[in-house]
Design brief:
The structure is a homodimer of 452-residue chains.
Chain A: H1 3-22, H2 34-51, E1 55-59, E2 66-71, E3 79-85, E4 105-107, E5 110-112, H3 120-135, E6 142-148, H4 158-164, E7 173-176, E8 188-193, E9 195-204, E10 210-211, H5 212-215, H6 222-231, H7 254-260, H8 267-274, H9 287-292, E11 296-305, E12 314-315, E13 318-327, H10 333-346, E14 353-362, E15 365-366, H11 372-385, E16 390-393, H12 399-408, E17 412-414, E18 430-432, H13 433-450
Parallel strand pairs in A: 3-6, 3-7, 7-17, 8-16
Antiparallel strand pairs in A: 1-2, 2-6, 4-5, 5-18, 8-15, 9-13, 9-14, 10-12, 11-13
Helix pairs in contact in A: 1-3, 1-13, 2-3, 3-13, 4-12, 11-13
Chain lengths: 452, 452
């Protein structure tokens, strides 16, 4: 049976199963969701067993468990290892969702819910593609699944897990759908990822909130100070001012910049999609380069003092921010943590205490265009979309991809089916059903071409 | 009967009654406390009736009602009008309190609870001093009480209320205990107050939180922008950079600076009391001058993006802050609102939307030292403390004091019994029982000397 026919026969069940997975609020950032993490892993384990793996096991890590599964048909055949994650971003701000983030709804041929794209929807395509290959006796290689529950918090345990289970995780290629494609009619393969350095900072002044009248003007205000410190991290051209920040970057040559600029991009559409009348970024680079080739520094959250309704006249005792930097290949996240911390502390005036701690970090990744896996993915996408896919560098981070290469010595192929409009990490995350089914249709072709 | 004896006889009842008032969480900043506002006003109305007013009435305003009460013994005698407020600051951050903010406890001869000093404790001294004068037939003048429920949110309705009830509020002096004294053994009278301009600002960028990987570097981050804008409001010397900000200030001459500097102040004790190793403030001024003579600008609260546990990789859609400026006499709060707004908006880069709105404002106040009321207060404090009180300029704001002068044409006398260590507006607000009873003891002497 052809894959298209199989999808047609089972499409409602595939969707119902995905909805079941989306209903589980497996938010890794919040320790209150521990039970949900387990439930999501169990759910996927059961579905993988149904699909035909020989063995599936929820394996402990020092953090949230990893779900591992495999079907070994012949040890002399190649092995494809599918990576995905069953955890999702927090749903905040919940009030901006048009429907319950954990009660999926179908609207305008899209499925809405936290994780609909990232990564439950994209991961589930692999489970169903695998099911098809098994049920129709077309599996041409060994398959392993490694599905973690900590991707959204920087995969703090997976590297160690890989070190402990090198033998178990032996494979020839790691296949990942956790990225986007350019458009529904323009497939693409992600050949570059940014690294990340994510820190939390605290600035503490007086030992308690003080009356802003009785102390105002005489006491160093930690929020005023924090704003000055953060303001000093970047210049007005959006360049990062941390000494040494750009030192390790390998500048991309003009030829490669030209190639990458072939990806279609319309700045008016881009601006409209996020409703801004001006794009930001360093001068001298295009928007695609800002995202794919250049590092960035963003405050992800800030808080301090009175944030309730009305006016409370205090000098806050402390101020806090979450600050992350996206890094490009060859910048090292631990080194960036270090120089950030040194510089940030140097910005503090006397009279406040500064604390900086890393919440997570990961390295960037570059994939070769001339590999067997790239060619297999390219041919699979061409087969189902009718177009040769475009290689792109993504601005996102999947730190495990660098870890896999470093620890297991295995390259990854990033065949993403998401769209920029899927609002991942935002309210009203969604995944077009077209993309979901197109992913299921494409993946078996990858197996076929990779093992040909 | 002497006042000291009366206090001795009734001290437990006085304290129990105050505890009853402190148990009512009359937080004006939070509309959810509407019922509590009413309960606090009713409580005080009943106690004033018990104490002997002829008439007490909870009178509507466009906001939270005013409690008015009076005892008119002879219209040809002078009238003292007592002002106070029955609303309190929010108790946040509640987790830093050692006991329930709304379940008062006595520890180390202090009463702990939100409002213990500001202003329920200080206001209640007046109710009990009045009770003494009535019950012992020693009242020598007419007395009015005007007790509002919106002081902590800037008294938005009281000015209009005064305009509507000019006749009812006719008086010769307004007596207020809502300020501090220098120390338990050093009485003082507040002769200057700062004004205030309190605003909330919003900076909005993209129409939703964006993935910081897929957009980071290409999109203007409203939190990054807000920090730069706030950082540009002051220089590194803590001077305010808003054009025109200092224009209307009347510089205090050297002679007056010398007089005010007689107030005892120890910077080591000050630093220790708030646990900082460095004091802030404009160069060229002392700490007492920073607080009493100079305007200030403080961020009272800031928020935006993800502030929960762990790492969420977003570019926030918007960022917000509450910013207030303490003003000195002759600075006009509405003008300051205006020039702040103009300057703040001018700091915004293209690509973000900025919104600024005033939450409240009020003018500063200066009281003459050569008035009958000042002399009466000075003699009363000398009588009970054995020391001539020191005139001080407070950094706090009681906007109604300027309003009373403007609308009713009546000066106020600020005879405060609080201490800096009372932690008003902070967790663990408290009021020493010594000060509470000393206040009750002193107030009847003020009436005596003022009407002599």
């Amino acid at each position: 049976m052809e894959i298209k026919e199989y999808i047609e026969l089972h499409q409602q069940r595939f969707l119902d199963e995905l909805c079941g997975l989306l209903r589980i609020p497996s938010v890794s950032a919040n320790p209150g969701h521990k039970k949900d993490m387990k439930a999501a892993a169990e759910f996927l384990k059961d579905r993988l067993m149904d699909a035909g793996v020989d063995h599936a096991e929820i394996m402990p890590t020092k953090g949230i468990p990893v779900l591992y599964a495999e079907k070994i048909i012949n040890t002399s055949l190649p092995t494809v290892m599918v990576y995905g994650h069953y955890d999702v971003q927090p749903a905040d701000p919940v009030e901006l969702w048009n429907s319950d983030p954990f009660e999926p709804v179908i609207k305008e041929n899209k499925i809405f819910g936290r994780g609909a794209d990232d990564d439950k929807g994209q991961l589930y395509m692999h489970v169903k593609a695998f099911e098809y290959l098994v049920k129709t006796n077309q599996l041409s290689c060994n398959v392993k699944f490694i599905i973690e529950g900590e991707e959204e918090i920087g995969s703090p345990s997976l590297k160690e897990f890989c070190k402990q289970h090198k033998e178990l995780l032996k494979s020839d290629i790691i296949l990942i759908s956790d990225t986007t494609m350019i458009a529904q009619d323009t497939p693409s393969i992600t050949v570059g990822l940014r690294g990340i350095s994510y820190l939390e900072v605290d600035v503490t002044g007086p030992n308690r909130d003080l009356h802003s009248g009785l102390y105002g003007g005489a006491v160093i205000n930690p929020v005023n100070v924090l704003t000055k410190m953060i303001a000093s991290l970047t210049d007005n051209n959006n360049s990062v001012l941390i000494p040494g920040f750009y030192d390790d970057i390998i500048l991309v040559d003009e030829e490669e910049r030209k190639q990458l600029s072939r990806a279609p991009f319309n700045s008016e559409t881009f601006k409209k999609s996020i409703d801004v009348d001006e794009i930001g970024g360093e001068k001298g680079y295009t928007t695609l380069e800002h995202i794919g080739l250049r590092p960035s520094l963003d405050v992800n959250g800030i808080w301090g003092g009175y944030t309730g309704e009305g006016a409370k006249t205090i000098i806050p005792s402390s101020a806090h921010a979450k600050i992350s930097m996206r890094l490009v290949p060859n910048q090292n996240s631990m080194n960036i943590d270090k120089i950030f911390t040194e510089y940030f502390k140097s910005l503090a005036p006397k009279g406040v205490k500064v604390n900086v701690r890393s919440l997570h970090g990961g390295e960037g990744y570059l994939a070769p265009l001339d590999s067997k896996a790239y060619h297999a993915a390219s041919k699979a996408l061409e087969k189902t979309f009718g177009k040769v896919p475009v290689p792109i560098r993504s601005g996102g981070s999947i730190p495990v991809v660098a870890d896999f290469e470093q620890v297991l010595g295995v390259k990854s192929i990033l065949m993403g089916f998401g769209l920029d409009s899927d609002a991942i990490h935002s309210p009203n995350e969604n995944f077009p059903l077209y993309n979901f089914y197109k992913g299921i249709e494409t993946i078996p072709w990858f197996y076929k071409y990779f093992t040909a």
